[in-house]
């Protein structure tokens, strides 16, 4: 089959590789019909995530048709149309039982690496470094899906791929980010740093949860326009001090909640860019710091943005003295997929709004470059594995 | 840390006469490598204990290739591959067996690698399941094999026990041990793996 392989920093390659096979009794094989490039794939593309190896197959946002099932798969059968969540969960450990799916104990075969770096290991993730399990990803024509009865959600209606594909990551991720804000309907003001795909879903989810006002911060005109069309008030971070403007847009109180939907590659600080390049700092935390300072007293800070290691100069004084609560984590996917599918079926939201480019899988390397450099107004790329 | 090697043989498993006539110290005080590792498994102690009590089952959870043959209710023969064409072999006997609570074992005389260990099953708070604590110690022998085993620090031995517990937990809770071995991969990894016979 064809698959998108990581070949080093800013080097992607479409290669012919073996088709996946069932390796464990609870696996299934999915023939992929649609797959996407995630903003978090850019952290891999830019070489900032440790434990990548040349030849790793990328991709963690995919859906398709079940073509093979392992002997212990009960719920799925051949021919089922499924969306696959990006985190892999066993369904049997304490974390899964508590709906903390992305903290599953039993799905990272390389848990020891994650334990060395993070203390404890979270769930395995498709195509997201060996530290996160080293699972082959879904920017390919087929994928092996472990714990097939726990992860994939069946799509039984005739909704097209583009409306349900983002249940694989960015819609639940944006939704959980908004949920972590503890929005009071009709009262809460939420500020969202980053209007990439996760930011866009966080903005819309905040409104779905009843936010009175959403302030969206970015520097790309198309992204700000997209946020505006959802009803957000926009702030271009290149046009002056963001914290000041957010403060005056909230009557001097500061937002009740702040969302960092940018993560480890924030723009804005030469200090971090240099340190990150010299490997003195793994993550550029410019947005995180700004959000910590901007959020109101006793407010909530929600961090869906990906960080992989250490950050410098965290204003802990602001967090402590303002009594800020911080919530973060990889998305507990299985908790959100079903209710969010219902929202799509009920036409409360059509996630396809975020797609700006549809590209054949064979053109993925160019698409990565376009997305990374935000060329041609690129916000979200969907890849067609058949082309 | 419970110093299990000094515990007197008791419970349902009588130690063989030869062992009883001597001290039960398998690994003398200041020698050897000792580790204690624990994990919590969301299953009742009875289920976990009965898996562990059949020592042949342990080959599934020990990452290193090992052959375990049970000779009786209490005695088993272990054979572990070592660098080169070496093998380390020993017989082990159960010296303490409290159903659903504790299993302790030690190697018999003549072991290539004298060792002793125990696994303890205790209820975790709330509905978290069972805390499983393994204590293990071994005494590196002389010779080539000993040199290799001596190089293995306590931390590495600890990591082996950690991995065995991790696999045990996955097998009990998820019904299988997670793997990526044999999945597709691009070049240059693919060629490298083919050379190594499929091992990542």
Structure summary:
The complex is a heterodimer of chains A (387) and B (200). Chain A has helices at residues 41-45, 94-97, 111-118, 161-164, 170-179, 197-208, 221-229, 242-249, 270-277, 286-294, 316-321, 333-345, 364-372; strands at 2-6, 12-16, 28-37, 56-57, 61-69, 81-84, 87-88, 124-125, 142-145, 153-154, 189-193, 213-218, 233-236, 257-260, 300-303, 325-328, 357-360, 381-384. With 387 residues, chain A is α/β, with parallel strands linked by helices.
Describe this structure in words.
The complex is a heterodimer of chains A (387) and B (200). Chain A starts with a strand and ends with a strand. Chain A has two domains: 2-169 and 331-384, Medium-chain alcohol dehydrogenases, catalytic domain (Quinone Oxidoreductase, Chain A, domain 1), CATH 3.90.180.10; 171-328, 3-Layer(aba) Sandwich (Rossmann fold), CATH 3.40.50. Helix content of chain A is 27%, strand content 21%. In chain A, the strands form four sheets. In chain A, strands 3, 5, 6, 9, 10, 17 and 18 form a seven-stranded mixed beta sheet that branches. Chain A has a six-stranded parallel beta sheet with strand order 13-12-11-14-15-16, with helices on both faces. A three-stranded antiparallel beta sheet of chain A has the order 2-1-4, with helices on one face. In chain A, helix 5 (170-179) crosses helix 12. With 387 residues, chain A is an alpha/beta fold. Chain B has 200 residues and is α+β, with helices and mostly antiparallel strands. Chain B has one domain (4-195): Alpha-D-Glucose-1,6-Bisphosphate, Chain A, domain 4, CATH 3.30.530. Chain B is built from five helices and seven strands; from the N terminus they run H-E-H-E-E-E-E-E-E-H-H-H. In chain B, strand 2 (66-70) and strand 3 form a beta hairpin. Chain B is globular, with a radius of gyration of 18 Å. The relative contact order of chain B is 0.19. Residues 1-23 of chain B have low confidence and may be disordered. The interface between A and B is large, with 44 and 29 residues.
